[in-house]
């Protein structure tokens, strides 16, 4: 397999809102290679979440093409996109999407079970990862009984549990205190070192952005590279 995880070619995204077309980004092209660590910054409303949804297949580009590990991702059926997403990507939403009826442990184990894993092994792996995000004492709690930051840490464990090709994280530490935020970034970097998972992380915290190898800014419909000294 080539070392290009995501090959994004000329993607644009527009929404139609009350008959007006709003363009969010235009003709973006980039490649994410195995092990890349990229921070994405930009003002509120610049389109960062939209971009993350489009490259993770949760939404489609208005035009352009996205290849995920060689699969023509945006041209696949909804079902195949779901399968590829579970197989190759971990996604951490700006607002967590945990399943309320499952415990923290089972929320994290689920992607492994969906991928065909044995439930006992999946739970063991989930327990390990929940330990790494500091939640060993909350395994049986359901999301409704966790704090906001704890829920976010469960969501982070869930995104990492399959050791995916890439993790796309949209403000993953937005509601965590500084110490926990840095611990989560360090954990993502450890997984990046251990298994070569690429990281694409939206953050408005420059000290977190500096933990990545590259920083891109989304502004005026385009992505630009920022020099380290400009972060
Ligand atoms: N479904 C939609 N229909 C119309 N406009 C939309 C839709 N989704 C997003 N937008 C608009 O697209 C723009 C970009 O939104 P997006 O959520 O991607 O911004 P963002 O950079 O993630 O902002 P933030 O930092 O506040 O999270 C916003 O102006 C938003 O109103
Ligand atoms: Mg956003």
Automatic annotation (TrEMBL):
Sequence ranges assigned to domain ABC transporter in this UniProt record: 6-231
A Pfam family annotated for this UniProt entry: ABC_tran
Sorted UniProt keywords: ATP-binding, Cell inner membrane, Cell membrane, Lipoprotein, Membrane, Nucleotide-binding, Translocase, Transport
Localization annotation: Cell inner membrane
The UniProt record lists the keyword Cell membrane: yes
EC number: 7.6.2.-
SUPFAM superfamilies: P-loop containing nucleoside triphosphate hydrolases
UniProt topology in membrane: Peripheral membrane protein
InterPro entries: AAA+_ATPase, ABC_transporter-like_ATP-bd, ABC_transporter-like_CS, LolD_lipo_ATP-bd, MacB-like_ATP-bd, P-loop_NTPase
Organism superkingdom: Bacteria
GO molecular function, one term: ATP binding
CDD domains, A to Z: ABC_MJ0796_LolCDE_FtsE
Known partners and oligomeric status: The complex is composed of two ATP-binding proteins (LolD) and two transmembrane proteins (LolC and LolE).
Purpose: Part of the ABC transporter complex LolCDE involved in the translocation of mature outer membrane-directed lipoproteins, from the inner membrane to the periplasmic chaperone, LolA. Responsible for the formation of the LolA-lipoprotein complex in an ATP-dependent manner.
UniProt family annotation: Belongs to the ABC transporter superfamily. Lipoprotein translocase (TC 3.A.1.125) family.
Name of protein: Lipoprotein-releasing system ATP-binding protein LolD
Species: Ignatzschineria rhizosphaerae
Lineage: Bacteria, Pseudomonadati, Pseudomonadota, Gammaproteobacteria, Cardiobacteriales
Gene: lolD
């Amino acid at each position: 397999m080539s070392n290009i995880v995501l090959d994004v070619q000329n993607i644009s995204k527009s929404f139609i809102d009350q008959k007006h077309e709003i363009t969010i980004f235009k003709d973006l092209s980039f490649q994410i290679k195995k092990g890349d660590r990229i921070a994405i910054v930009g003002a509120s409303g610049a389109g960062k979440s939209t971009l993350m949804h489009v490259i993770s297949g949760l939404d489609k580009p208005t035009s352009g093409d996205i290849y995920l590990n060689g699969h023509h991702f945006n041209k696949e059926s909804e079902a195949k996109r779901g399968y590829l997403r579970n197989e190759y990507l971990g996604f951490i939403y700006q607002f967590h999407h945990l399943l309320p009826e499952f415990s923290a442990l089972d929320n994290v184990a689920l992607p492994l079970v969906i991928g065909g894993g044995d439930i006992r092994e999946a739970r063991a792996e989930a327990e390990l990862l929940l330990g790494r995000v500091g939640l060993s004492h909350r395994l049986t709690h359901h999301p409704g009984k966790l704090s906001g930051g704890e829920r976010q840490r469960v969501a982070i464990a869930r995104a990492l549990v399959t050791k995916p090709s890439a993790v796309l994280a949209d403000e993953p530490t937005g509601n965590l205190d500084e110490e926990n935020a840095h611990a989560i970034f360090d954990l993502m970097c450890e997984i990046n070192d251990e298994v070569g998972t690429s990281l694409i992380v939206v953050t408005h915290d420059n000290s977190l952005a500096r933990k990545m190898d590259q920083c891109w800014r989304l502004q005026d419909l385009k992505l630009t590279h920022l020099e380290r000294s400009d972060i």
